[in-house]
């Protein structure tokens, strides 16, 4: 142990400020006591601001609209005149927020950030079900712009994915067994998807917010209920049907498990492998049982499958904690954070019990049996309608939770939650500062092109181990209802490293070779050294 670390050790003893558990298990910070709304949906934009919103028919929120503005909505089922906000813009860098205005109901909707950096939000409920809403990042002046009839069909509980050609696809939603595109096609606007009818458990559904990811072959991986397909969305043909998950329990809403596309590696190779991991969910029957006040223990299993295999099989692993309504977040170091949710019951109003306060980190490259690490707990339950998302500095914002039809602060087990927290994974501990890289060049907001060899210059106070340096790209997702739409992490190839001078290094990173592997747009780029990430910078990945 070096003299300084001995000193730190002693100092923290004396000041009693050290959490010994934080050496393994991350730490929590309360960022805001009250952001005014319950963040049901969350998206990070390339100006380090996070757009959050809930629903317009929640009744009054805790945040007034600016300048005495009110929303007059004769169609709203709860408040025809509402002078409170249901959306905010949170600025990560200054830890401040401001109210935004949505005009129609955004409840249980979906979204994606287009290549130009604007957030396109799709659908919702009631008067919002066919709306498109556009939010273009700016410095404090912008607000939502609504497009009536922007969608061909009503979309409530749909999932979106950005496509290689720059459009986005909107898949499913309640009683919608089809998909469509934005910008909207001229006829036919809708493409039927019988898989969504086949996976619809009557009465319970269990196939809402389908888990959709763009596969490395250009097809769309779609998981709903307890099984998945690979869809050629251009020809509208199912090209592969995956086996049913062993145990056959439903994993999508309201039996909400969560799913990630694991980090894509060796992306310059001819046959890139893609794998998905799905964790937790409601036990069979939990939705119906919880309506009768019987809260079944949630699932404690994860299922992992190589979706590019010719004969793919699910591999089951057991989590240290049961979880339904969890969120799964890809961290820059390639691990998966499993956070939020409950240990029993189901998604739905008042239908969850036993909050799971401890996140779990899953390390996909560890040998099976040593992949899960339980993290330090928060004190705030994050039940139905909670969210979490990575920000540029490597922390994870955690917000929301409102399992009630309206805002309810008293007389309930899980009051409407307006507090905003951040979870800092271990890699942010000061004890790793001497091996932490700091990106020196290029600068934030650089434009980079497909297949380009980019020099990434970084500093590091301690010695750098040559073969322990990686550069990764992370696409910030649209987060809602336990699914991070468009979440994608790519480990860039090459990694040729040179020492420039004392503490200054250069690593060459080759950008993704195609828009199929990485659709154009804004990504966070991190340098990772010995598993410790730098702060990210925004890059704008473009076609030459
Ligand atoms: C704001 O929230 C608190 C609970 O945190 C509640 O008691 C209060 O009535 C709310 N105030 C307004 C103006 O909505
Ligand atoms: C991005 O494109 C959309 C149209 O799809 C447009 O409304 C928006 O203003 C554009 N954003 C920027 C930043 O140019
Ligand atoms: C779920 O429960 C239903 C009714 O109790 C039963 O018919 C079905 O087989 C069960 N499914 C699984 C996967 O256990």
Automatic annotation (TrEMBL):
Keyword Oxidoreductase on entry: yes
A UniProt-annotated Pfam family: Glyoxal_oxid_N
Record's keyword annotation contains RNA-binding: no
Primary location class: secreted
SUPFAM superfamilies: E set domains, Galactose oxidase, central domain
Signal peptide span: 1-23
Residue ranges annotated for the Galactose oxidase-like Early set domain, each copy included: 436-540
GO cellular component: extracellular space
Residue span(s) of domain Glyoxal oxidase N-terminal: 40-427
Keywords, in A-Z order: Oxidoreductase, Secreted, Signal
Compartmental location: Secreted
Gene3D superfamilies in the cross-refs: Galactose oxidase/kelch, beta-propeller (2.130.10.80), Immunoglobulins (2.60.40.10)
Any one GO MF annotation of this record: oxidoreductase activity
Name of the protein in question: Aldehyde oxidase GLOX
Species assigned in the record: Rubroshorea leprosula
